[in-house]
Amino acid sequence: MWNTLEPEIVARLPRPADANQAASEAGGTTLANDVVKWKTTIDKLLEIRLLEYDFDGQGSLAPPDGLVDSAMILAIMLRQLGARAPDWTIATLNESVLLQWDWPSGASLEVEVLQPNLAEVFVHEPGKTGESFTIHGTADSLAAISAVR
Question: Does 86 map to a domain?
């Protein structure tokens, strides 16, 4: 489903070591609980997969199952690449899934899965122009997972 990620995207992924520094500064994630946070991320994606029409009480449509499955495979791939667990895992009002990482500096990285084989990566750093990248997938999810092992 997902191709191997481009080096410029992989270089931007927050690492558990980043989390240790952030934890000492702001009481955030540590290496010891990153495994728990990844489990929580996957559990949240499973919860999102079960959402139905009007999940927010405002008539919003839930993300399609195939899109959520794709987000789950991408999350597993990011974990295998050594990224720390996202700080936020959210079903958006636009029928997409958002994974977001935040730093104490105010910087953030967002991966929004828009379609089963399409995601946008947004990098926001204070005082800098934001950057965006597109991640394209293929129909072969097993090959994508095997490629990062």
Answer: yes
The pTM score is 0.79
131: its two tokens = 């950057």
Is the model more confident about 19 or about 122?
A: 122
pLDDT value at position 18? 55
Alpha-carbon torsion angle 82, 84, 90, 94, nearest 10? -50
Work out how many domains the chain is built from and give that number: 1
| Model pLDDT, residue 142 | 36
Mean pLDDT of 34-40: 91
Residue 2 inside a domain? The answer is no
Structural domain harbouring 133: 7-147
For residues 147 and 149, what is the distance between their CA atoms, to the nearest angstrom?
6
CA distance linking residue 89 with residue 46, whole number of Å: 11
Is residue 63 within 8 Å of 48, Cβ to Cβ? yes
In a domain, 1, yes or no: no
Inside any domain, residue 26: yes
